[in-house]
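Would you mind giving me a polypeptide sequence along with per-residue structure tokens?
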Amino acid sequence: MYLKEIYIAYPKGDMEKGFRVRESGPYEASTDDVKRLFQSFQKKCGRCVSRVYTDKDGESKPTGWVFRKRMQYEGIDSKFILETRVILHEKPDEVIWKGILTIPNK
């Protein structure tokens, strides 16, 4: 299973003025266990606020999650909301790196 993460920051919690902070290319997850992936991202990226849907063959199918977490700017006394969109892929055309998300075995 392959993942792609998109990080979007919203200054001072303003959901209308978002800007993209970073986007990863597709990379191979360290596990194929979707439940464990979700729980790991939830711990790292905050609460899940939505699913990500992709249109395929005329149907919308859930392909990932949207997480939000309130973060503190470095060096100033102000906060923002960081939104992380995680999209699950089958093997993409190009893999940028492998195993970036490490999930400990229980």
Remarks:
- Residues 2-93 form one domain.
- The radius of gyration is 15 Å.
- The chain has one domain: 2-93.
- Helices lie at 34-45.
